[in-house]
Design brief:
4 helices; mainly beta; 4 domains; disordered N terminus; 379 residues; 27 strands; Immunoglobulin-like; elongated
């Protein structure tokens, strides 16, 4: 009787999938004798003994790095997540996981199922993984990207899985920006940035096109990196127009950038108002900017790159800029820094102040990074 109770506890510890497998074997007539039943028990016991127990270690919301435009094949080891590509037909979408190390060794424990939300991975459910894997179900009301994460413990290090996309209705939207800066005689450096709507870098292939006789013609392809950018230098003249195009895929909708014009010495004009918060910045008209009043350490004029302002980060030194409205005047570009990260990741505004070296700082994102362009007043 004691052996029978021990066997019952052992089966319970292997997870529902292992128990179902054992039952199925017996029902199909596979265990036709006491010896064969004993062999089955030995196999299940060995499976449990080979498993590593991961102690509970939930993960806080974490800043997201880069995601891929198209899914990457997961490796043979580690924490692996799978899910249907589309939520259509599912009341709740099943998310399945396996967890292995050193080949055949399995890891059992609870991990966090996280969804990409803005610029962060946010936990939306727990997923229990046994020796034969695990599964949880989640209602998916809109298209999104998911992963698994584990915080780490004494026996198992912190880790995360591959990411998977589940489409519910429309594909996800994204932003592409393009800039074109002179790079010597008859050449220009063309830069693409590609991010999710929340500002997370997207790694993938874009097509560069040039406007020729009112028609867009393909020039080359580029692949954006984990910093959201891709650059190439091509033959070009002042005034030439370029754009980047993504034709659409399994995760993201088709999208194209605004035109990028190779900037010459002509004066560029920026209308400037005053803003008090992020909502004011989000609601700026296309091509407009605002003086961000809460920052007093220096004069920061800000705007989103995807609202027609990506060219700020491409102006050559010495370019003349006219500001209209707030901080009105004629200025010259004297310096620029492209800082890694955005928003709170940049720290205090004083980290990017210019002091007496400039009069106004233009601030706009460059994909998942941030550009600070220093202007000195000349009239």
């Amino acid at each position: 009787m004691e052996d029978r109770r021990m066997w019952s506890r052992l089966l319970a510890g292997t997870g529902a999938a292992a128990l179902a497998a054992a039952a199925g074997f017996a029902l199909l007539g596979g265990a036709s004798s006491a010896d064969e039943a004993g062999e089955l028990r030995a196999k299940v016991t060995a499976s449990v003994e080979k498993s590593v127990i991961a102690e509970p270690s939930p993960v806080d919301d974490q800043p997201a790095e880069a995601v891929y435009a198209e899914p990457e094949e997961p490796g043979d080891e580690g924490l692996v997540l799978s899910a249907p590509e589309e939520a259509n037909g599912w009341d709740e979408v099943p998310f399945s996981a396996t967890w292995t190390a050193d080949g055949a060794q399995t890891i059992v424990g609870t991990v966090d199922l996280q969804q990409l939300d803005g610029e962060s991975w946010t936990t939306v459910a727990d997923l229990d993984i046994g020796a034969a894997g695990g599964e949880t179900e989640l209602e998916v009301g809109r298209s999104g990207i998911y992963r698994l994460a584990y915080g780490g413990g004494d026996t198992v290090e912190a880790t995360s899985s591959n990411d998977v996309a589940v489409v519910s209705g429309e594909l996800m939207e994204s932003w592409i920006t393009a800039t074109a800066a002179p790079a010597g005689d008859d050449a220009a450096e063309i830069t693409a940035t590609w991010t999710t709507k929340g500002g997370v870098a997207i790694v993938g292939e874009l097509e560069l096109q040039r406007l020729v006789d009112d028609e867009w013609e393909p020039v080359s392809t580029v692949t954006t990196g984990a910093d959201s950018t891709a650059e190439l230098e091509i033959d070009a003249s002042i005034g030439d127009r370029f754009r980047f195009v993504y034709p659409g895929g399994s995760r993201f909708e088709a999208v194209e950038s605004d035109d990028a014009v190779v900037i010459g010495a002509d004066v560029r004009t920026i209308p400037v108002s005053t803003c008090q918060n992020g909502t004011d910045i989000d609601n700026l008209p296309y091509g407009a900017a605002c003086h961000y009043a809460p920052v007093t350490v220096d004069t920061f004029v800000v705007a989103h790159d995807y609202l027609g302002n990506a060219w700020w980060n491409a102006m050559p030194m010495g370019t003349v800029v006219e500001l209209e409205g707030r901080e009105a005047g004629i200025y010259e570009v004297v310096d620029r820094t492209i800082a890694p990260g955005r928003g709170s990741a940049l720290g205090a505004a004083s980290n990017w102040a210019c002091g007496d070296a400039c009069d106004v700082i233009l601030q706009t994102c460059q994909g998942s990074n941030t550009g600070f362009t220093w202007l000195r007043k000349i009239d």
